[in-house]
Design goal:
- The chain has 11 helices and 12 strands.
- By secondary structure, the protein is of the alpha/beta class.
- It folds into 2 domains: 2-106, 60s Ribosomal Protein L30, Chain: A, CATH 3.30.1330.30; 113-274, Alpha/beta knot (3-Layer(aba) Sandwich).
- The strands form 2 sheets. A 7-stranded parallel sheet has the order 8-7-6-11-9-12-10. Strands 1-4-3-5-2 form a 5-stranded mixed sheet.
- Helix 6 (140-152) packs parallel to helix 11 (264-274).
- The longest helix is centred in the middle third of the chain and has 13 residues, at 140-152.
- 42% of the residues are buried.
């Protein structure tokens, strides 16, 4: 492990560019999707990232976390580990690094959607049977929470639409507790291509929506299809017309006290649990 001491005088070093002003959205866009990186925050998330086969590029931490990082980074002796106190770390990043460590990681190459649907799944041990599709959800907290439920409840894969928030954004990864690094995922093409792709793979598409043709979730759960794709949309506008059109079934969660719907992450957890393979 190559440990390098940080000081306030050396924060302009180009070697620290992965961690500079991380609260600046424009800089983060250059660093992350375009730069082929994402940020893993906390030793637990870094461990899950490395276990998933992802490679670290650099690490930022306080000295007391070095014993936990040392075994994780043993396979990567050339990765620099920048160590500083709280004041220096906050001056560099723009926020308080209270989770111990932050690593810039090389983004893995995403599989093709058809490959993910046809290949072996993490939960079932065979081809994917239960998948979640997140359409255009832009709140990173909700995306991370959906991934956490998907992992915990045995979803085989998650697919996100072209305009959905980045699952590897720092907040998404943190809220998911690193499970976004465990559940197979990729981006879908637009619905005109995604619909036939899912149907050709044998999936029934069920859209969670408050439409006139929606059936109660209990009906779907009583006799779920062998291969099921649950589609969830934004809390404001709901699912797009294209998603509703391509869906084979519309499903609603019965509500009480005049409440029309749940938070999208809560709805995802409830729906996935209800249709889990028995």
């Amino acid at each position: 492990m190559r440990v390098l001491a940080l000081s306030a005088d050396g924060l302009a070093d180009p070697a620290l560019r992965d961690f500079t002003r991380l609260t600046d959205v424009a800089l983060r866009r250059l660093l992350e999707p375009e730069g082929g990186l994402y940020l893993a925050e906390s030793t637990k998330v870094i461990e899950r990232a490395i276990r998933a086969g992802h490679r670290p590029r650099a690490v930022l931490t306080r000295a007391e976390w070095l014993p936990q990082l040392e075994p994780l980074l043993a396979p990567f002796p050339d990765v620099p580990v920048h160590v500083g106190d709280d004041a220096v770390l906050e001056q560099l990043t723009g926020f308080h690094l209270h989770r111990g460590a932050l690593a810039s990681m090389h983004r893995p190459e995403l599989p093709e959607a058809a490959e993910l649907l046809a290949g072996p799944a993490s939960a079932s041990g065979g081809s994917a049977r239960r998948i979640v599709i997140i359409e255009d959800v832009v709140d990173h907290t909700n995306v991370g929470a959906i991934f956490r439920s998907a992992a915990g409840l045995g979803v085989d894969a998650v697919l996100v639409t072209p305009r959905c928030a980045d699952p590897l954004y720092r907040r998404s990864v943190r809220v998911s507790m690193g499970t976004v690094l465990q559940v197979p995922w990729t981006r879908l093409p637009e619905w005109r291509e995604a619909g036939p792709l899912l149907h050709d793979a044998g999936f029934t598409i069920a859209a969670l929506a408050l439409s006139d043709r929606a059936e109660d979730l209990d009906v779907l759960a009583a006799d779920p299809p062998e291969r099921l794709a649950l589609v969830l949309g934004t809390e404001g506008d709901g699912l797009s017309r294209a998603a509703l059109t391509v869906a084979d079934r519309h499903v609603r969660i019965p509500m009480a006290h005049g409440v029309d719907s749940l938070n999208v992450a809560a709805a995802a957890a409830l729906a996935v649990w209800a249709v889990r393979p028995r």
